[in-house]
Design a protein that fits this description.
The protein is α/β, with parallel strands linked by helices. It is 53% helix and 11% strand.
């Protein structure tokens, strides 16, 4: 419908405007938006205001010219001019019914694929080796995964990049301690408590000089490619990521081993990058260190800020690794767009890295570099979410707690599900609740972790939306052999529900463009609320409702269920026919 209106506007412009007056870019970027207020029609455009300058006329007069020259079309019932020059389009109900029918028959539910698929690298999750994933990792993991799902569904080639922290001086210490533990317990040991392992390794390093000497030697050997040290290092990486993979699988996150692109991947590139930046006079020596000065970033004195890429002892920094990483993604992976899901505190660091990459030509201006920042997860007290003792909350403990709470809820509700069905329902509600609590908030803001709110069957929560889906499924069980039929828009609420269903494509496209999953969450929640209003205002199977109305309303139920299911699936959340 947007495309139809855009074409009608272009035909109108061609009738009264001279081609030399209007830039082609204007015609290729005509914006058609769905209205928020139904009294203003179904769609609106501000094109008259944009054309007023080149046509040297006031916006309302231009709007009148556009309307007067607009070709007639059976899909449009009325066109009005509002305010300073907005043009509002009202769609006739038969066209809405036809569009709903086409949407219901489309496996993609009317979601169009992008015209030009892109290679998109998405950097998300990024845990550290030899450390257990904490609750704060959930933000990067579930937000990134939801956006990945949407971008893939829209037809892009998405490359998942789990940029794990698997390199650095600490690995000499960890390898030496792993060796010590294996000598004590046997080579087949399996690490289950990385927090204790890391803490004990550090204590051993600080208290035992002989151990510390060995640890420092192992760092040098590891960086030099020593086979024994690399074997031990790979063990640490594997044990960590095997444990993390269990969490990914439990959360229904699409990351796997093949998506691991850790810091070590770029290790051989670091000296090459530094030497190249020196040779091209982008980097200079300063007090023994190699530094890049960027005039757009100033220190407190107003001088260009220095960015060290090699320390005076020859060591490299995160900045160096991230420069090499961006270069690799642009050159080797042929990325058109690169998204980084990291917390908001990384903003200046990434801007600096990208500025160096642009200056060196490692990443061309044609490649979109986007930081998708997120705020902090807070407790009810407004402080960072911690254990009662002030420690880090482990992600697996949160998931365990979620499933325990849902189990207790189901006992209260006395469901008649089988034990196997209960396990599935408990998993889906618990994981959905934890993920949706994060996804439904604008990622740029901090949010409060609140068990009661996220597991509620009321409000903007996953359980509420999952229940809305199962409630629709129950309608079809009651309908028996009665099947959905032709949609007839007769009631005001039916029209509102219909228009919200037709806005599904817009909601999904906006997530792909802005990397904000909360836009899709808000859409599904609003759709579910509208359905509840429709369900109360428009009887479906009651006696006295004629057959045509029954099958029409069943069709609206069917399409609503499909959209809720597909929308939640794009967010990585499962639905159930019975809860």
């Amino acid at each position: 419908m947007k495309q139809l209106i855009e074409n009608l506007i272009k035909q109108s412009i061609n009738k009264f405007a001279d081609n030399t007056q209007i830039d082609e870019k204007v015609l290729s970027n005509i914006r058609i938006d769905r209205t928020k207020d139904r009294s203003h029609g179904d769609f609106a455009t501000n094109i008259a205001m944009i054309l007023s300058k080149p046509l040297k006329n006031n916006p309302r007069a231009v709007a009148q010219l556009l309307v007067d020259n607009l070709p007639e079309d059976s899909h449009i019932s009325k066109v009005e001019i509002a305010g300073p020059g907005f043009i509002n389009f009202f769609i006739n109900k038969d066209s809405i019914s036809d569009a709903l029918k086409a949407m219901n028959e489309d496996p993609r539910l009317g979601i169009s694929k992008v015209d030009s698929p892109k290679n998109i690298v998405v950097d998300y999750s990024a845990p550290n080796v030899a450390k257990e994933m904490a609750v704060h990792h959930i933000r990067s993991t579930v937000i990134g995964d939801a956006v990945v799902r949407v971008l893939e569904f829209l037809g892009n080639n998405v490359i998942r990049s789990n940029h794990i922290g698997d390199w650095g001086t600490q690995f000499g210490m960890l390898i030496a301690y792993l060796e010590k533990k294996e000598n004590e317990q046997g080579s087949g040991m399996d690490l289950s408590d990385f927090e204790a392992f890391y803490r004990e390794a550090k204590e051993c390093y600080d208290s035992d000089e002989e151990f510390a000497v060995k640890a420092r030697r192992y760092v040098v050997l590891l960086q030099g490619g020593d086979e024994y040290c690399r074997t031990m290092w790979k063990k640490l990486v594997k044990m960590t990521m095997d444990q993390n993979q269990m969490l990914y699988d439990r959360l229904d996150v699409t990351l796997s081993d093949k998506d691991i692109m850790g810091e070590s991947l770029y290790n051989d590139m670091l000296p090459v990058v530094v030497n190249d930046l020196i040779d091209r006079k982008i980097a200079v020596e300063d007090q023994g260190a190699i530094v890049v000065y960027l005039p757009q970033f100033k220190n407190k004195e107003g001088n260009p800020l220095g960015n060290i890429i090699r320390k005076n002892d020859g060591g490299f920094l995160y900045t160096t690794t991230d420069i090499a990483c961006a270069k690799y993604r642009a050159e080797k992976l042929k990325a058109d767009r690169i998204l980084y899901f990291t917390d908001s505190r990384q903003s200046q660091h990434l801007e600096t890295v990208w500025a160096i990459c642009r200056k060196a030509g490692y990443v061309s201006d044609a490649v979109s570099l986007e930081h998708c920042p997120f705020g902090m997860m807070l407790g009810k007290d407004g402080h960072p979410f911690k254990t009662r003792s002030g420690g880090t909350v482990k992600l697996r403990d949160v998931l365990d707690e979620a499933e325990n709470r849902v189990t207790a809820l189901l006992k209260e509700r006395k469901s008649n599900l089988s034990e196997e069905e209960k396990k599935t329902v408990i998993h889906n509600i618990a994981m959905g609740a934890v993920k949706y609590a994060d996804l439904s908030k604008n990622r740029t803001t901090d949010y409060i972790f609140d068990w009661e709110q996220m597991l509620s069957f009321e409000g903007n929560t996953a359980p509420y939306l999952q229940y809305a889906y199962s409630r629709i499924c129950s309608i079809f069980k009651k309908a028996g052999d009665l099947k959905p039929g032709k949609i007839i828009i007769a009631h005001e609420v039916e029209e509102e529900l219909a228009n919200k269903l037709l806005a599904f494509n817009d909601a999904v496209q906006s997530v792909g463009a802005k990397a904000l999953p909360n836009l899709l969450c808000n859409y599904i929640f609003e759709l579910s609320n509208l359905f509840m209003r429709f369900y109360e205002a428009c009887p479906i199977l009651k006696d006295g409702v004629d057959e045509n109305t029954k099958v029409s309303r069943l069709a609206l139920c069917e399409l609503t269920a499909k959209v809720i299911k597909q929308g939640l699936n794009l967010l990585g959340i499962n639905v159930m026919e019975q809860m």
